[in-house]
Amino acid sequence: MSAVKGNSFSEKHQPDVKPDPVIESKIRDLAKNEEVPCALAFKVVKETGVAPLEVGKTIDLINYRIVKCQLGLFGYKSGNRIIKPVRPDNTQIEDAIQNRLVKGRLPCKTAWEIAELFDTHKMTISKACEAMGIKISSCQLGAF
User: Fold this and answer.
1) Which of 31, 42, 63, 130 could disulfide-pair with 85, CB 3.0 to 4.6 Å?
2) What is the domain range of residue 132?
3) How many independent structural domains does the chain possess?
4) Residue 19 zone, left/alpha/beta (φ > 0; ψ -120 to 50; rest)
């Protein structure tokens, strides 16, 4: 989840909140250098059956960093985002994005659903959003 450099990620949560021990164990097993790629966080979601926000909260509480967003929006060594604006070849993708906006933004989960619907890469959807001037919101892990 996001925090200002030098701050503790766990400070985003109430002081009495503790990490789930099962999730924490799995995160510690998968993480390298206290970083958890988004894809591995979702592996934990699948293995434990908990909501993505619970995994994200646990990552925060142990002060690990989520990296390599599957939409390409944050957590890459080259900078915050690795995507560039690109309109999709299929205009139906743009229509699907426009039709699913919430307060002018596309929720992360919805971006994933559109990618699955059109059998395309998640970053294709985020690139289209960039080209359309649409922000992606509500990270499933709570990073943004």
Assistant:
1) 130
2) 91-137
3) 2
4) beta
Does residue 62 form part of some domain?
yes
Q: State the DSSP string of the chain.
A: ----TTS-GGGGS-TT----HHHHHHHHHH-BTTEEEHHHHHHHHHHH---HHHHHHHHHHTT-EEES-TTSSS-BTTBS--------S-HHHHHHHHHT-BTTBEEHHHHHHHHHHTT--HHHHHHHHHHHT--EE--TTS--
Length of the chain measured in residues: 144
Q: What is the pLDDT of residues 95-138, one digit of tens each?
A: 999 999 999 999 999 999 999 999 999 999 999 999 999 999 99
Output b/e per residue, 80-96; b: 16+ Cβ within 10 A: eebbeeeebeeeebbeb
